[in-house]
Amino acid sequence: MPDRPRVLMCEPTYFGVEYVINPWMHGNVGNVSPDRANAQWQDLKALIERVADVELITPGPGLPDMCFTANGGMVFGSRFVPARFSVTQRKPESDLHRQWFAGAEVEVVELPSQSAFEGEGDALWWPGPNSAPLLWAGYGVRSDLEAHRDLAEAIRIEVVSLRLVDERFYHLDTCFLPLPDGRLMYFRDAFDQYSLAEIEKQTAPEQRLEIAAEDALRFACNAVRIGRTMIMNDASAELRARLEGWGYQTHTTPLDEFLKAGGAAKCLTLLLEQDGYSTEIESAPSPIRTTTVSMRGHLLEGNKLNAALEVIAGFGGSFEVEQLRAGERQDQTSDARIRIAATSEDRLRNILASMQGFSIEEVDPARDVVLRSVERAGVAPDDFYCSTIYRTEVFNNGRWHPVENQRMDGVIVLEPEGQGARCVLIRDLALADRVVCSGEGVRVHTPDLRKADREFRFMSSGVSSERRTEGQINEVALEMKRIRARGGKIVVVAGPVVIHTGGGPHLAEFIREGYVNALLSGNALPVHDIETNLFGTSLGVDLARGVGVHGGHQHHLRAINAVRKAGSIEAAVREGVVTAGVMYECVHADVPYVLAGSIRDDGPLPDTLMDLKVAQEAYAAAIRNADMILMLSSMLHAIGTGNMTPAGPHLVCVDISPAVVTKLADRGSVESTGIVTDVGLFLNVLARHLCV
Ligand code: NAD
Fold it and tell me: The whole model's pTM is what?
């Protein structure tokens, strides 16, 4: 390492706690002082600049955690491996890091698989001299074990995998600090027994500094070490004395604003040179092994599936539930296909032996898919494989093909060689299309069920339900601000209750303020929105006074007639017939809207699509690449949209009926939020948070 090494930092311009992705954030949403955070960051930077050169990456709007540069990736010599974040909220940071490193003429090396890898947060080089040339890597909370194998193979480096078992120490750099001369400092309770044995195998007792919980919780391990200087948030006098005994000068600088988000000194820096790293290192192939097992039975009864997953974790393994088909009735069995990774062949065999009680069977996932040709257009072969919302790959001719246009309740068609695979609806199947049948050779990437469970626990704290709703709405507002700031996409799906409950002006304001990128609805919302503009009523009820007006029942028909006379909603707005409201703002802000017809419709408005196939296609096109879909009190359109949405966008469903909310939140995705409340009230509170 040169005399003055370089580190990458990012000003905390947009820093804040705006979501909950680790236990530290819980209770701290909206609770950060930007001035204090900035002052603390400047103090840290000044301390680092005494011993290193700091380079800066420009922060991205809407990315409140981007100041934690350690998670953006990792530098190995002249190469940079960008992170593949496990949490949706941080995924856009990776591209900004890629651009920065490409601009700095550093070779950007992508990991071959889709496994999560959160950069230096979970990968720490053991610095020289006199340390074995290896990378300590964490898994179990954020990064995947399989990413360690990717790293070992892509960078040709020896990786020692350590499993994290305490969610407060969700990244390796929060509880582990490798030091030169084969030493390290760590917090024992953050690791499983196998990882502790690995640490003990690699180091002699006098080379290990075990820290107390009190220091671990102050993020003492999350220190920046450059040469003999160590900079950290805080440490006990005892720990400082021990480090000084090893020849380090310790400096503490308060970073408690960043601790609210679960980060401190190390998280705020990314090393641009690894002390002692050399491309000359010859490494053995990665010992990490994987296999796939199938499991069948009453898996959901008595939490049998969870118990099996606990066995894997208990032996230090990691897993991905690739497929889960739940029995729909009590007498029906369920089946699951689980991909297991372990740190060695022996460990993998131990896991499999301990799982025999669960009637598992090892399967070869890499068997070609079964393909059958369509014999009648619009009709699938009898045993067609039915698609889910999750990212899916199909195996054929020796490789996995990612499936495009992922959605549930579709079929998968494998195109001629080299053209990939795609999801289509049965009605769109053409003669001779090759349809994937049976489920053999299909790999589905479902979210980690236990991670989903953890997210749920963060959200369901002991606060009263009104406070919880208020908190949830605040989080939705913060996320909408972030998405708007980074130029993302928010789609609103809304029913006429929005207008009846007096929420129309708020929705109109969100459109005007640039928070809505597409509006999906039916005939009724625009009808009552325009009725309100023309007559001050919604379904004949005076919205200002909350009482029905004489002759009001005709108002919506007169509104429809006025639009029909103009020819379209847009024409009615441009001609000055419609002068305010949701549709008025859409026309003025150029926000596309799709209105899907139904049998209930009066009129309909000229813009309402009465051909349902056309309407479904227009909806599907409108939700493509959405970051958030906000569903407001329309069971019909919310469920219709949910059925065509792949996993990925954050679905927020607001309805007064718990059944509707549960139906949407039950898609098994961590990215769903259900809010049971009056939609008028919801929009009112959202406007308070959003439009101040
Ligand atoms: P829906 O029954 O599918 O959904 C209404 C939802 O609103 C329900 O889930 C209900 O629980 C919820 N809800 C009721 N009061 C609420 C409140 N105060 N706060 C929050 N949620 C509340 O009906 P929809 O989506 O309104 O209409 C279905 C279809 O019928 C649409 O295509 C619509 O355009 C059409 N429609 C047409 C007309 C017309 O043309 N005049 C009138 C009504 C509906």
Answer: 0.83
